[in-house]
Specification:
By secondary structure, the chain is an all-alpha fold. 72% of the residues lie in helices and 0% in strands. Helix 1 packs antiparallel against helix 2. The longest helix is centred in the first third of the chain and has 35 residues. The protein is elongated and about 65 Å long.
Length: 87
């Protein structure tokens, strides 16, 4: 039965694929929120004099890593949502 990939229960398969699609979207949104909060925490933490505890280069690197993480999360979400059939 696994060789021909014939759906055993079409309704269950549709629910499964819909759940996968929703899960991928939720993971992407979670990644975006986590990255944003991480960068905000890095920016907001002050050493008592209003400055950040890291150098400008480290702050720039953190923003760059955050942008790359969001781009990769979005690409993964798009690819998986295209690969998984719609319900």
């Amino acid at each position: 039965m696994a060789k021909n990939r014939a759906p055993t229960f079409p309704a269950a398969d549709a629910q499964f694929f819909a759940g996968v699609r929703r899960g991928v979207l939720a993971m992407w949104l979670c990644a975006v929120v986590t990255v944003v909060l991480g960068v905000l925490i890095l920016v907001v933490i002050a050493d008592g004099r209003g400055g950040t505890p890291v150098s400008a280069g480290a702050l720039t690197a953190a923003f760059a890593v955050a942008v790359v993480a969001v781009i990769f999360a979005a690409a993964t979400s798009i690819l998986v949502r295209r690969a998984v059939p719609k319900a």
